[in-house]
Design a protein that fits this description.
Among the domains are: 107 residues; 168 residues, Nucleotidyltransferase, domain 5. The protein is 45% helix and 17% strand. Strands 11-6-1-2-3-12 form a six-stranded mixed sheet, with helices on both faces. Strand 8 and strand 9 form a beta hairpin. The protein starts with a helix and ends in a 9-residue tail after the last helix.
């Protein structure tokens, strides 16, 4: 059996050598036949070209076509000859190697025995013992319990398009500070559904006699506790005031004490009940409402009824949502100024009953009456009212995977704005 596995002597041609020789002979034979038939073809041309010109032209045309076809095959034939020669050279080199290698031509059993003897005569290598690593006494232990980024807030129930940020640190307000969330909706009797069109936090500090207005764009893309990352104006529709309250606390650190939501009809009725308001415009605007082009100049005052005020706070073709938040704050200031005049204070119970039919709120009249002295003080001195908003410098525009246009908050910049709005000691530290 060992004899059958031994390589054949080099005097007998191998299968590879035979293939190389046949390929080379085929290439030479095809090249020779091409030259031979070309000579026959040329010899067949008539000697007297003048007497038989037509036959000569036909044969010349065929010869030209043959030369063109032969030129195309010339490179292929030449490549075959070179390839055959290379195979023959490789076969010859392999045969010479077989003749010169004594180990290859030696009997199989002899080479095996020699290899085994060489391995047995080699110096043995002692085995290597791997010791377990010594644990460091100062290395801390990692707790396997994962920590949720949303902390004590409700966990998301759906996947989000962006990473959920951690909650904003809660602002340390004075004990008697009251934070009221004002919401304006686009609810109409014909449609039934609504979206939160305006979002504003009114923070009243009775000890300091000041008020702070903070407006939030409706397309701000934030984490809504218990749901997912989405526009902030969807929280009220999704989970009511409780979800809206947690959304404001999570993303701004502002605890909300009460809220009020008013639709278009209630907004118009409330201002008409006051007998109209006087709005001081702080920027130029020219836009269209109800088919009429309206122009407002900076520093000018405008008397408006309910319909005019609704147009003023909703127009956005020329200024967009950021400019609309400015106008919403101007109207709120005008309402407070009209409400807390001497004439208005005498009608507070009556006005509350009328307003209660035009908006939805969880604030009772007994909770508002203690704030009346502070409101009078604020209205008498307009410098006691501070206005802030999440404007275009605090957000980045972004498109959701579904194509929606939203605003991504710049959290460090927003936190600095909140520090300015509610005091330098509002947070323990800035992220």
């Amino acid at each position: 059996m060992l004899e059958t596995l031994r390589p054949r002597p080099s005097s007998q041609p191998t299968a590879l050598s035979q293939i190389c020789e046949r390929l080379l002979l085929h290439c030479v034979r095809r090249f020779s036949e091409s030259c031979f038939f070309r000579g026959i073809f040329i010899a067949r041309m008539p000697a007297n070209a003048v007497s038989n010109r037509i036959h000569w032209l036909k044969m010349k045309r065929r010869y030209v076509y043959s030369m063109r076809a032969d030129a195309k095959l010339k490179s292929v034939k030449f490549a075959l000859v070179i390839f055959g020669a290379a195979l023959c050279g490789a076969c010859g080199f392999a045969a010479a190697t077989e003749n010169q290698d004594p180990l290859f031509n030696a009997p199989l059993e002899t080479s095996v025995v020699a290899t085994v003897n060489a391995l047995n005569s080699a110096t043995p290598v002692p085995p290597i013992t791997l010791l377990p690593p010594t644990p460091s006494p100062t290395e801390p232990l990692v707790s396997p319990t994962p920590s949720q980024i949303w902390g004590d807030f409700p966990a998301p129930t759906q996947l989000s398009s962006t990473e959920i940020p951690p909650p904003m640190p809660e602002i340390a307000f004075a004990p008697d500070t009251v934070n009221i969330l004002l919401l304006g909706s686009d609810e109409r009797r014909a449609t039934g559904g609504f979206r939160t069109d305006a979002i504003m936090v009114v923070s009243i500090d009775p000890a300091e006699g000041t008020a702070t207005l903070l407006s939030v764009p409706r397309d701000l893309y934030v984490y809504i506790p218990g749901w997912r990352m989405d526009r902030i104006n969807t929280a009220m529709v999704r989970g009511g005031f409780e979800m809206m309250r947690q959304t404001v606390l999570y993303n701004f650190g502002i605890p909300v004490d009460g809220w009020a939501r008013m639709n278009f009809a209630g907004f118009i009725s409330a201002i008409d009940t006051l007998g109209g308001i006087t709005v001081e415009s702080t920027a130029f605007m020219r836009d269209e409402c109800r088919g009429v082009i309206l122009t407002y100049r900076s520093g000018a005052s405008y008397t408006m009824d309910g319909g005019d005020a609704l147009c003023y706070v909703r127009m956005r073709k020329s200024g967009g949502d950021f400019d609309r938040m400015r106008r919403q704050q101007e109207v709120v200031r005008a309402i407070l100024s009209k409400l807390f005049t001497l004439n208005g204070l005498a009608r507070v119970p009556q006005l509350y009953n009328q307003f209660f039919n035009t908006f939805i709120t969880d604030i009772e009249l007994t909770e508002l009456l203690p704030l009346v002295p502070t409101a009078i003080q604020i209205v008498a001195d307009p410098t006691r009212i501070s206005q802030f908003s999440v404007d275009r410098d605090l957000v980045d525009s972004w498109r959701t995977p579904s194509g929606g246009a939203v605003l991504l908050p710049k959290r460090p910049e927003i936190q600095l704005m909140l520090l300015e709005a509610f005091g330098s000691d509002a947070f323990d530290s800035v992220e």
